[in-house]
Predict the structure.
Amino acid sequence: MAIIVGIFSGLIWACFASFAGVIGERVPAGKSIGGRSVCVCGRELLNSENVPVLGYLSVKGRTSCCNQKLPIRYFLTETFSLLLGFIFGLFIGSAIEHGGGVIVWFIWLGITVVGAFAMIALNWRKPKTEVS
Ligand SMILES: [Zn+2]
């Protein structure tokens, strides 16, 4: 049980980290957060390239179209969030196993929401021309 909650939590956190990267990059630049991520050459990223952590690994940190280096911080923040979310989920899952009840889920949700905003704050940067 705890391991399942851990995996679930880790995946959610990795997706939030990925999305926080998009928000932190585009909102300060006045761009829309809707729409697909594009390479500096204008090509839209593939679904497989958009998957947190694995997307970066699948292209070995470079875009498949023009061999542009992808910023390592995306990979690092996503991996870090995945691990953090996983460990946090293990505690939550364990608390549920020990009869923590529904309140435990609210604690998870509360900290996850705070974590998501913290990730956006960490990813917030001045407009720059970079793969986003
Ligand atoms: Zn490209």
